[in-house]
Amino acid sequence: MTVPAVPVPPRVAVIGAGTMGHGIAYVAAIAGCRVALYDSSADALADAQHRVESLAATGLQRGKITEGDRAALHQRMRFVKDLDDAVMDADVVVEAIVERLNTKQMLFAAVERQAPKEALFATNTSSLSVGQIAAAVREPARLIGLHFFNPVHVMRLVEIVLHGRTTSDTVSRAIAFARQLGKEPIVVQDSPGFASSRLGVVLGLEAMRMLEQGVASAEDIDTAMELGYNHPMGPLKLTDLVGLDVRLAIAEYLHQQLRMPHYAPPQILKDKVAKGELGRKTGKGFYTWSD
User: Fold this and answer.
1) pTM: predicted TM-score of the whole model, two decimal places
2) What domains, with CATH codes, occur in the chain?
């Protein structure tokens, strides 16, 4: 299937207003896109609007954006609770919902019924099979993986994930879109965990095992990676930002798919998730958060 290039700037629908969704929406709007941020939860949309305002205020304070950028952001972004409204005129639809295969498949099947036929579909999954997600739509060639990193407004990397039915046109459009957002894309194949999650999850789980074994405190483990290996954020703090429930789901999936012991989630992670200590979004994870 040959499709036209992504318009500059494209109209973007972001599905899911959580940690990744609102970050993707913010970056797209700052880059000049008209953005519809959808979520079925009114509370999630209200929280996302607050977080977008906070990102803009911080960006203005640090000189990353101007007052004009912030004013334009308000003009370009819509927060919508109706899926059809969000996708009906979109050039690009980016999904950033819960990491459950059947949920993503059902979402894209619904999106396909309302989105324009030439729209590019992208999933932000960090570990699930993009090919299996694409199998839910009539034209799987239009769907690709666009794996953004948290926090989206800071992290430059985007993984472009190819599956067996991906066309060169779709890849070109995805790369162009990522670059429009100021990101640096890499192209990887549809393998469990892609490139980044396979590496990053191992580091995060080992940090949890060290904490569990009393090797060092969470702060010192993180400092070891920040100062010793020049990581911008330690693995435990990053896990708090991503969400412990998200990390657990990814670890369980990779352990099931790859059958390697270093992907087995440690007990400390399972216990914290069971207690509802999911990281920054709940106020407590490996750290205590005040906002």
Assistant:
1) 0.84
2) 11-189 (3.40.50.720), 197-282 (1.10.1040.10)
